[in-house]
Write a structure and sequence with these properties.
By secondary structure, this protein is α+β, with helices and mostly antiparallel strands. The chain has helices at about 5-60, 100-105, and strands at about 60-65, 80-85, 90, 110, 125-130, 135-140, 140-145, 150-155, 170-180, 185-190, 195-200, 200-215, 220, 240, 245-260, 265-275, 285-290. The protein has two domains: about 40-65 and about 175-290, no CATH class; about 85-175, Beta Barrel (Thrombin, subunit H), CATH 2.40.10.170. The protein is elongated and about 115 Å long.
Length: about 290
């Protein structure tokens, strides 16, 4: 004779079933959360690597490794540099008077265009670089040929500001800058004609300037009296310290980014070091801005 389950047995079975279902759901939720966390972590790392790649590619293209005070002052959380917009430099001619002082005071100069093509046209930006490492960044207010295979550039409102030396060259350049805003965790990029956001969820964007001693390769970071946290220009390219000459050789960027995947949030921190390469025999030590400070 078969008998049914008692009420107690049914209740015990239901309780055991509820426990098993609870454990199963808890395991399932934990697995989903772990998967979401892994997805967010991978997303954050990929995002950081993409930003580092774009930044380092831009910086490796910097003309002469020169850092600029514009469009942003260069320091811990912002940086500007110059990109050469055309290959090779154009030979600049001495002032008609033949006197160096008159070249410094003039607001124009003549040069020999490469391949008979104007290096800088009206409204474009140019860079004068002399053999001592002085450079002038300017906007051409007037540019054109003057005959005899020569061309002339005028930048009204400011003087040449640098000495003429043999092998003074003219380049067409583009200013490029990055600025980090910690208030809205956003990284901005500026080509000299206005900025645009390039990345959100940036929790850290720190730049360190690495100096190397020419005597014994000793390494120091963020040297000199320059205020890297509240910059007003660009860091020095050379610093004298303890009887040694330290030269700015490379930059280190530390970047931390957030990423969210299915309500899971992760932050990843990565670092990259970029050498400041020189594209010509000139080494730029000071960049003067037409109408502004170096």
């Amino acid at each position: 004779m078969r008998r049914g389950f008692t009420l107690i047995e049914v209740l015990v079975a239901l309780a055991l079933l509820a426990l098993l279902v609870g454990f199963g759901l808890r395991s399932l939720v934990s697995g989903v959360q772990a998967n979401n966390g892994l997805s967010a972590s991978l997303s954050a790392e990929q995002k950081a690597r993409r930003i580092l790649q774009v930044f380092t590619q831009d910086l490796r293209s910097a003309a002469f490794g020169a850092l600029s005070p514009t469009p942003y002052p260069t320091g811990r959380h912002s940086i500007s540099f110059l990109l050469v917009d055309a290959a090779g430099g154009n030979v600049v001619l001495p002032h008609d008077s033949g006197r160096n002082a008159s070249f410094r005071r003039a607001d124009e100069f003549k040069y020999v265009p490469r391949n008979r093509v104007l290096a800088v046209r009206t409204g474009e930006e140019g860079l004068l670089v002399n053999a001592t490492g002085e450079a002038l960044l300017f906007v051409a207010t007037q540019a054109g040929f003057v005959g005899g295979g020569r061309a002339k550039v005028t930048h009204s409102g400011c003087a040449n500001a640098i000495d003429y030396t043999p092998n003074t060259l003219l380049f067409k350049v583009i200013r490029l800058g990055y600025r980090y805003d910690p208030k809205n965790a956003t990284l901005y990029r500026n080509w000299g004609r206005g900025e645009a956001p390039v990345a959100y969820g940036i929790r850290r964007f720190d730049l360190d300037y690495v100096y190397v001693s020419s005597a014994d390769n000793r390494i120091r970071t963020n040297l000199g009296s320059y205020d890297y946290d509240r910059p007003t220009g660009a860091p020095p390219t050379e610093v004298q310290l303890d009887g040694r000459t330290y030269r700015l050789k490379r930059l280190t960027l530390t970047l931390a980014v957030d990423a969210v995947s299915r309500n899971a949030k992760k932050t990843r921190t990565l670092s990259a070091t970029v050498d400041l390469l020189r594209g010509t025999p000139q080494t730029i030590r000071t960049v003067y801005v037409c109408g502004g400070k170096p």
